[in-house]
TrEMBL record:
Residues 1-21 form the signal peptide. Residues 201-232, 254-298 are annotated as: Disordered. GO terms for biological process: calcium ion transport; regulation of store-operated calcium entry. This is Store-operated calcium entry-associated regulatory factor. GO terms for cellular component: endoplasmic reticulum membrane. It comes from Emydomyces testavorans. Residues 271-290 have a biased composition (Low complexity). It is a single-pass type I membrane protein.
Length: 298
């Protein structure tokens, strides 16, 4: 009876915590291995890891600093060397090296392996390790691909061109408005001249002399009481004001704009140097680059 109770007490926790059933110091399978027993790892581009509990992952995966930089170059092979453990004997530290063009260098690297029974298992599945790395730019790479690092909410080159196009659009609008105002003013002046000729009082103050009889005739009738010789209608004259100033400014801006376009000049907009386009691709020569990092289990 006592032995039965002891057996129940022993197996009952295992029903709710299966990980308590395995011995961390004993290999659960021929395909399981401790990372501390792995001296080196060789990873290849365009290859997948082995997998058992979770999905396979690429053996080499670039994780930054941007998709544009990662897409420029992928190392064909990377070799990682076990450098011992950190605070935890299962947290193995690695030194990873790869051949890269002079525009790039390896940043941080992290070896990611599948725990055999769970993500906390010190035993990992053979062949399940991959490397996540960061691809950084050297000084030469900054000169060639630095504009890709500036991409965020706006592309600086496109933003500068947008400002230039906006300036041209505003200049064209001012010229159009100024031309319309000038035409209306000209028509107004013509209408005002005609009204002065037709609406003016033509009566004389004295009549002509009679034929054969000397002397002056009786004076003509006086001007009407509502006659005001100093006033004119609104359409008779045109005074310079706001619209004439806008017209002058628009014409001046148009002249300056034409002068700049004829000489091939554009506004000085500071944008990152793009003397070498990213479409040219990295250099054909390579050199060894090294990155450092730890381990993560999945």
């Amino acid at each position: 009876m006592l032995s039965l109770q002891a057996t129940i007490l022993f197996f009952f926790p295992l029903l709710f915590n299966p990980t308590a059933a395995y011995n961390p110091s004993q290999s659960p399978s021929r395909n399981a291995i401790l990372l501390s027993n792995v001296p080196t790892l060789t990873l290849y581009a365009n290859r997948k890891t082995t997998h058992r509990r979770v999905s396979a992952i690429p053996q080499l995966k670039c994780v930054g600093p941007s998709k544009e930089i990662c897409s420029l170059y992928t190392p064909d092979v990377m070799r990682c060397t076990n450098q011992g453990f950190d605070y935890d004997e299962n947290d193995i530290q690695w030194t990873c090296t790869a051949e890269l063009p002079p525009e790039f260098k390896l940043g941080s690297t992290e070896v990611v392996c599948e725990g055999y029974r769970d993500s906390n298992d010190p035993w990992i599945l053979k062949g399940s390790c991959g490397v996540e790395y960061r691809m950084l730019l050297t000084n030469e790479g900054e000169r060639k691909y630095g504009h890709l690092m500036a991409r965020g909410s706006f592309d600086t080159r496109s933003w500068g061109e947008f400002l230039w196009d906006l300036t041209k659009g505003l200049g064209t609008m001012l010229i159009t408005i100024g031309g319309f105002v000038a035409l209306m003013s000209y028509c107004s002046s013509l209408t005002g001249g005609n009204s002065r000729r037709t609406n003016g009082w033509s009566g004389g103050w004295g009549g002509g002399g009679g034929g054969g009889g000397g002397g002056f005739g009786p004076p003509g009738p006086p001007p009407p009481y509502d006659y005001q010789p100093g006033r004119y209608t609104k359409t008779e004259t045109w005074q310079p004001g706001f619209w004439s100033g806008a017209l002058a400014g628009g014409l001046a801006g148009y002249g300056l704009g034409n002068r700049g376009r004829s000489s091939g000049q554009r506004p000085a907009i500071h944008t990152p140097s793009t003397s070498s386009s990213s479409s040219a691709g990295p250099s054909s020569s390579t050199r060894e680059s090294t990155g450092f990092g730890g381990t993560r289990r999945r």
